[in-house]
């Protein structure tokens, strides 16, 4: 798992047990549950597959 800060967001990148790299983005500023930012887990996107296609 890797975390990276990108402005108001945290990007969460994981390697699944099937070898797929996936990423989600969570808005952390303003604090989740305040200022129009939904509480967790509503402040995060669904995970997206970043692995290159198998040819």
From TrEMBL:
It comes from the Bacteria. This is Uncharacterized protein. It comes from Sinosporangium album.
């Amino acid at each position: 798992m890797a975390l990276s800060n990108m402005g108001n967001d945290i990007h969460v990148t994981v390697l699944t047990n099937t070898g797929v790299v996936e990423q989600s983005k969570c808005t952390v500023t303003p604090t989740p549950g305040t200022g129009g930012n939904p509480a967790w887990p509503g402040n995060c996107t669904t995970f997206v597959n970043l692995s290159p296609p198998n040819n």
